[in-house]
Write a structure and sequence with these properties.
Its EC number is 1.11.1.-. By secondary structure, the protein is mainly alpha-helical. Helices cover 48% and strands 5% of the residues. It has one domain: Peroxidase, domain 1 (Orthogonal Bundle). It contains 15 helices and six strands. The longest helix has 16 residues.
Length: 349
């Protein structure tokens, strides 16, 4: 079935429920998740998605950007104010250095928000969770009904509320992660574990690499435990990851997850749900199973060599024949403009 037809049927058949200040249509969550998956699949799956990204964007990897957005959306949370909702406010802080590079991914993610009227917090969380599942990670139920933070919420410190490799020492970054009420297991799973996807870009993080793109691990297009195995071999890109592997409190967890992917996946599910629900009243959330398949060419497209080749191909304007034909029929470049127009409208609401 054509994706547009599927989404239309989902909306028409969905049962609308009032939940807080958000109208939820549970049966469209699956359709919304598949919208995200559809973007992740062109043209190189979980590695490079140049069909949806402007050529000048330093990062062409929606998977890594969406996962990063899910983390950064709760960056203003303070464990000393556990009931203060901060989720859904990320679009207000895209100009902060810690959020560098996320902007274009937010444009793509939030386009459907205008159409489906979910909370921004649910939107960001769903995009991140769809990435984890589709790119080879654990499959788990999606909780929905999150409230968005009030846009005028005063924060004690707006800037540098999350760890920033460019200006913070490892100890400073660890302190900031503790402010989010993260345990050691949460930190290792969510920080190093999320770096299973993507890499560093010279245009965004010149303090980390002088390469156009440097993968975080040897399988940057696959959500797996290889990032921990590489860390034990002394391979780390970010200051926080290099600090974690040397931290005697954290290293045993690195060793555990490197040898046991199931243990990593189990902890990641627990930590991810904790992260995206910070400040939320979890007793008021509902849950729905997601039917998301793993990307069919994950192994073929997910290695560092394949990702680097895909990035070079995208930079040169080449793409698979099937993708090129589809793009010429659907006007992929025009879609990017539509995404941007929609998100600008969204941010001005």
């Amino acid at each position: 079935m054509h994706l547009a037809s599927f989404l239309t049927l989902s909306v028409l058949s969905g049962l609308a429920l009032s939940h807080g200040n958000v109208t939820i249509i549970p049966r469209t969550i699956q359709g919304l998740a598949m919208t995200f998956v559809g973007h992740l699949d062109v043209p190189y799956g979980c590695s490079v998605n140049s069909d949806d990204m402007p050529p000048e964007s330093p990062s062409q990897n929606l998977a890594a950007l969406w996962l990063r957005a899910a983390f950064h959306d709760v960056g203003k949370f303070d464990a000393e104010k556990p009931e203060q909702v901060v989720s859904g406010l990320l679009p207000n802080y895209l100009n902060e250095t810690e959020n560098a590079g996320i902007g274009i991914s937010v444009a793509t993610s939030f386009a459907s928000y205008v159409k489906f009227n979910y909370s921004r917090a649910d939107f960001i969380a769903l995009a991140g969770q769809a990435v984890v599942i589709h790119c080879g990670g654990p499959n788990f139920n999606f909780s929905y009904g999150r409230q968005d933070g009030i846009r005028t919420t005063p924060f004690t410190s707006l800037a540098q509320s999350l760890p920033d490799d460019a200006i913070h020492t490892y100890d400073m970054m660890k302190t900031k992660l503790r402010r989010l009420n993260f345990t050691n297991a949460d930190i290792v799973a969510l920080v190093t574990g999320s770096h299973s996807l993507g890499g560093a870009h010279k245009a965004i993080s010149p303090h980390l690499t002088d390469q156009k793109f440097q993968p975080f691990d040897s399988t940057p297009g696959i959500f797996d435990n290889v990032v921990f195995q590489d860390a034990l071999k002394g391979k780390c890109v970010t200051r926080v990851d290099c600090g974690i592997i040397k931290d005697p409190e954290m290293k045993p967890l690195i060793e555990l997850y490197a040898s046991n992917q199931d243990a990593f996946f189990k902890q990641y599910v627990e930590s991810f749900e904790k992260m995206v629900n910070l400040g939320q009243k979890t007793s008021e959330l509902s849950s729905v199973a997601l039917d998301i398949e793993v990307h069919e060419k994950l192994a073929e497209e997910g290695s560092a060599q394949a990702v680097l080749a895909a990035a070079d191909a995208a930079a040169g304007g080449s793409k698979p024949v099937a993708t090129a034909v589809a793009s010429s029929k659907s006007g992929a470049s025009g879609n990017v403009v539509c995404w941007m127009v929609l998100v600008i409208s969204f941010l001005l609401l």
